[in-house]
Amino acid sequence: MSSALINAIKRLNISVLPQIRFCSSTANQSSAINVINNEFSVTKKEWKFPPSYTKPREVWIENLDTIEEKKVGLFELHPLVYAAAPRIDIIHKNVTWQKKYRWVSWAHTKTRAEVRGGGKKPWPQKGLGRARHGSIRSPLWRGGGVAHGPRSGKTHFYMLDIYSRLHGLTSTLSAKFAQDDLHVVRDLELPTDESEYLIELIEKRNWGPSVLLVDDTDYAPRNITVATDSLQYVNIMPVYGLNVYSMLKHDTLILTQAAAEKIEERILHHLNSTKVVSKFKLSQV
């Protein structure tokens, strides 16, 4: 199997291929192929959380320094993160949660104490044969206050459990990868800061009308920051801010190699953690 894969890669005529990693037959080991003068050397790599029943997925590492797409390597993705069974209900639960926790209702009604007028009893309590009333601004009167109406500044914040958030991320990443809307690049370095270069690159590679770029840090290179400043459909996000709503809002998800590794590392850590998660409190640190 390894020789067949190596021969297939040679026929692709890839110019720069610093590292290719593929899964071996063992469950807890994988192989790394280093290319030096068209010679392949296979080395073993230990998995921290090896997949038990499925094989790792592979994706090409692409470049951003040229308009034409060049494959500079193969990158291995953990199947528990990038090849999980998509749960549409969990994705919907995450989207609903993200929409509601930033929704503040500013609808406001006045109570009987805040409306203008009133102050004295409209007629005597007894003797006239009329209904008893103490104020013309009660909710029973036209122009009176509103009972149990909406009050401004009402938040709809609630906290979703950590497992729903984790499986929401894995489901969305897996759906993007299965639909060929997830791409891995070596870094976000561009040769120029002109927006036309990035527009042509996106159009040439069919990355869709909207693109989300994710890096492992919040310090993006200057060229890509300036190039995306005037493009409303291209956004840059650090890896710690990746969420389900942003991934669904954009058609194409572009991860740097470092960001893909960090996403995989953190999600696998929480999925395999035995620590009991305490109930969320607003005052907790």
UniProtKB/TrEMBL annotation:
GO terms for molecular function: structural constituent of ribosome. One of its GO terms (cellular component) is ribonucleoprotein complex. GO terms for biological process: translation. It comes from the Eukaryota. Keywords: Mitochondrion, Ribonucleoprotein, Ribosomal protein. Belongs to the universal ribosomal protein uL4 family. This is Large ribosomal subunit protein uL4m.
